[in-house]
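User: What would this chain look like folded?
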Amino acid sequence: MSAPPKSLRGRAAIPDVGRLFRAGTYVAWIGPFLVLSLLTALAFVPAFLTAKAVADFGFGRHPAVQAFLLGLSIPVGYLVFTVALLLVLPASRWLLGIRSKVGDTPMRSLALAPWYHQLATTYLFRALCGRFVQATGLYHLFARLMGAKVGRNVVLNSTNLYDLDLHRYGDGALVGGDAYLIGHVVERGVLHRAPITLGAGASVGLGAVVLPGATLGANCHVGAMSLVPKGATLDANAIYAGNPVRKVRDL
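Assistant: Here's the prediction, encoded as structure tokens.
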């Protein structure tokens, strides 16, 4: 059997560090996944104990009362779970010191782990509780705890709000039902994150999409199903519509 070429001798025992690093980036989501799974289980404990206490209170009483309390235990337990999840998920960002980077990050990078955590936290709360609490004070609290700057009398009638740590809402701003405000895009293998700002009294219509780096001036209104491109700056006191948006008229 012939000997291996000189160019390959001694290399079999040397790991390809670059390949190992690139492979590691594909599993950067595992840490956030495990942390958020544990936090969800933690939030379930007080919900289960509360529901059990309500149901147990009915045992030995009139059958109608017993049936009522047994049925009541489910929504009461779910409400406790929602509040607990709302608190423990954002708390993990502060306890673990997680801060997502603003700007550009290569997709093949372990530096994406904080962003995975941020995004997964939003997805998890949205999937388990978001639809029930959108446009309420509970969702406003969640947005603030996730890092959003929310002024007074703001209406967030959508749970399609991602990268909340980059969102800025002036007093009286409104996000219409199922609008998408997304603080990131991926282009050519690079994650780009930039703030989204809605000035005082600005509004985003039903189903509209606002991309990273967009700024809506005070009293600026974006029509339903419109697209605000990344980095766009829309004038104050104006109406915009279209895909991409164009000014319809000044107010």
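The mean pLDDT is 85. If you want, I can go into more detail on any region.
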